[in-house]
Model the fold of this input.
Amino acid sequence: MPIRAWVAEQHEAETAAALLIAFRDHNGSDWPSDNAFYAGVEKLLEDPNTEFLLASTDDDSPPTGVCQVRFRWGIWKAATDAWLEDLYVRPEARRHGLGDALVKLAIERAAERGARRIELDTNEENAGAIALYERNGFSTRSKATPALPGRDLFLGCAIERED
Done:
């Protein structure tokens, strides 16, 4: 099957947002709102440091996979860093190679922009995602700092706002 993956253009904002809404729903959430997703994707597509990638099973099928790639200057690499996030493939399109195509394109886009590394986070219980990422060269152990012991961890902290 000839998988097709590409960088979304501004006119594809609604398509990317709809896939992210499906991802939100898949995760059992109803927030942020649909409108927030549509507005957010449109805003991010205007940012030259953000790309949405889309994938379909062939040239005649609508996109059924999406991911977001963000770019920033990384002081420790003295080069661009890339962050892959929000990779989602609709359940009916899984196991056809769309996830691999999106990850490969994300790595390719990062390399084209001069990135020295690309990072991501995923839930440790998501065996399918971990297998996808490991198959494409990602590791829980940074190859950039082999002298340091232990696994690399992604940590997060919610910031409460009073609005």
In short: The helical segments are 13-26, 34-46, 98-112, 127-135.
